[in-house]
Each structure stands twice: as C-alpha cells, then as structure tokens.
Specification:
Its EC number is 2.1.1.37. By secondary structure, the chain is α/β, with parallel strands linked by helices. It has a domain of 195 residues: Rossmann fold (3-Layer(aba) Sandwich), CATH 3.40.50. 25% of the residues lie in helices and 16% in strands. The protein has a 7-stranded mixed β-sheet with strand order 3-2-1-4-5-7-6, with helices on both faces. Strands 8-9 form a two-stranded parallel sheet. Helix 1 crosses helix 8 and helix 3 runs parallel beside helix 4. The longest helix has 19 residues. The chain is globular and about 65 Å long.
Length: 329
C-alpha cells in the first residue's frame, strides 16, 4: 500500500527522498527559498512544489495526505545560531507546521530539529510544542537520535518527533541502532583525487568531471581554528554544516594540533581543504545523480547541511510504515 505525503520546509528534499525510497509518495512540497527551487524541481519531478511562505499556505491548499513530514527551520534553536528558540520568528514556524497538521489530520507526522532545542533555556517552549502536538490529536513519540548509529558516516544528533493520530492507537518504537558502522573511507574515498577548487573562493567550477565536486576556498575564521576540524578515514564525519566556511576538512590531512585552549593549527607541509559539495552530499546520503544547482557554492553547502540524511530518513520512514501497516493488520 502506498501512502501519500506532504512535505513542509522541504529544502532540497533529503527527508523526501528517504521517504520515497521507503515507498511513500511525496505529492506536495513547500519551500520558499528561491535558491532551492531549481534543485528541488530537477530532482523531484513528480512532486508539486509550492513556493510560498508556509505562513501564506492554508490547509485547504494541501491535498489530502496520509502523512506530513518536515524540518521547521532550526537556526534559532542551534548552538551556532541565535539561540532564541520560539522567540525567533523562524522558531515560530513550528506553529505553522502544527496548524496545518491539526487541520489536515493525516495518519502520521514526522518533524525533525536540532538537538539544541533540548537546551534548558528552551524547556518551556519544548513543553508548549509537545502540548500543542498532543492537543492537535496525536500520540507523540520523541527521541534524540544520532545518524551515526544508523549506518551513516556522520555524527549528526537530531530531535525526532513522530506522531500518530490518536484514533489509530499505534504503539510506536524508534528503530534500534544498526551494529555495522560506516566511516568516511566507505563513503568518499573514491572522490579524493578528483575535487577541484571553486573559482574566486565560491563560484562554481565548470570543468568538473563529477557534478558539484568543488570545494570552497578562502581563509578560516578564529572560531573555526578553535578546535580540530579533521576526522580520519576510519571515523564518521563531523556534522555537515549549512555553511561552506564551516565545512569539515577532508580526511586526507592530518588532525590539527592543539596549541592552547581554543587555538589549533594545521600541520605544516600538508594541504587542508574543505569537503567538496559532492563529498558533503555523499555524507548526507544523496546519490551522485542528485544534482545541486547554484551560482554560489554557499547555496550548495546550505542545501546539503540543512537536509535530513537520506539513509536515516529512509530508516525512520520504514519504521513508520511498519507501525501503520501493523495497526491495519
């Protein structure tokens, strides 16, 4: 049985792709960032993309679906963002997710956000969100999961909210961790020697043999140099950030040397380059035939860093599908 899904705050569609791989049908997506539209529509040709702000979308504009998925903007909850949580207009977009959920009443929903929203300063806001999700008619299941525990070559902790409509009486359990780990050598080793630098620090390089296999150049900030940014081939990647300047360093370089607290240096005589857009995409689970369109590499890194890892999304989607199918017996 195929379940229809609406995707909100879709970005480039990593979460959508994972659900598609699990057999769900993504029939509607919403994304207001014009720098993402071309990428989404190129890679999701069968999904209708609504380009308006979610605040302008009425529930009647969205077709009848079995599920709603999405990652409301996380910058305001992030340790690297404003930390203002629900006080930030971006943080308040979670309420639009709940508004549409309450009015559409699909069988299930999944919402993903950064682990920073669990910080003590956001405790009251989180309780408010949980109460509203429950009041919308859903049994809520909530956990912090690390994608590295699910066969992903990246440490990426995220808060996952999954809900099922109360009348379905579904008892859900999050999928158990996978024993077999994956590391950088398993994901990007074959790309090591073919990456090219961006033109003029962040402009696309048209001479690429592998699409999007270019990396941002330019200096590194004191904040970046405050700690080691290199993981070895036999480790999972650091979290892929939504910023080219904050991209992890390629594992071909030795780990940075700690000089003193909050000060690290590169080992002299070695090349330290950022991960390419394609390497970042691989680490986030996007296949090589998923093409990112941009005029500035910053937009490529941003789309990838803001996405949900595709393999991780598929595992969650499988667990939701199994729970629903079991309830229908």
């Amino acid at each position: 049985m195929s379940y229809k899904v609406a995707s909100l705050f879709s970005g480039a569609g990593g979460l959508d792709l994972g659900f598609q791989e699990s057999g769900f049908d993504i029939i509607y997506a919403n994304e207001k960032d014009k720098n993402i539209w071309e990428t989404y529509e190129l890679n999701h040709p069968d999904t209708y993309l609504d380009r308006r702000s979610i605040t302008d979308v009425q529930s009647a504009d969205i077709p009848t679906v079995d599920g709603i998925i999405g990652g409301p903007p996380c910058q305001s909850w992030s340790a690297g963002g404003s930390k203002r949580g629900i006080e930030d207009p971006r943080g308040q977009l979670f309420f639009d997710f709940i508004r549409i959920l309450e009015e559409k009443q699909p069988k299930f929903f999944l919402a993903e956000n950064v682990s920073g929203m669990l910080a003590k300063r956001h405790e009251e806001s989180l309780e408010n969100i949980m109460e509203l999700l429950g009041a919308a008619g859903y049994d809520i299941f909530f956990s912090t999961l690390n994608a590295a525990d699910y066969g992903v070559a990246q440490d990426r902790k995220r808060v996952i909210f999954i809900g099922f409509r109360k009348d379905l009486k579904i008892d859900y359990s999050f999928p158990p961790p996978i024993e077999k780990k994956k590391y950088l050598k398993d994901i990007i080793l074959d790309l090591s020697d073919s990456a090219l630098p961006a033109l003029n620090k962040s402009k696309p390089n048209i001479e690429l043999a592998t699409p999007n296999h270019e990396y941002m150049t330019g200096g590194f900030s004191p904040m970046y140099m405050s700690r080691n940014r290199v993981r070895s081939w036999d480790e999972p990647s650091f979290t892929i950030q939504a910023s080219g300047r904050q991209s992890p360093i390629h594992p071909s370089a030795p780990k940075m040397i700690k000089i003193e607290q909050d000060i690290h240096e590169f080992v002299s005589g070695h090349e330290y380059r950022r991960m390419s857009v394609r390497e970042s995409a691989r680490i986030q689970g996007f296949p090589d035939n998923f093409i990112f369109k941009y005029k500035d590499l910053n937009d490529g890194y941003k789309m990838i860093g803001n996405a949900v890892n595709v393999q991780f999304a598929r595992i969650l989607a499988d667990s939701i599908k199994d729970a629903i199918n079991k309830s229908y017996g």
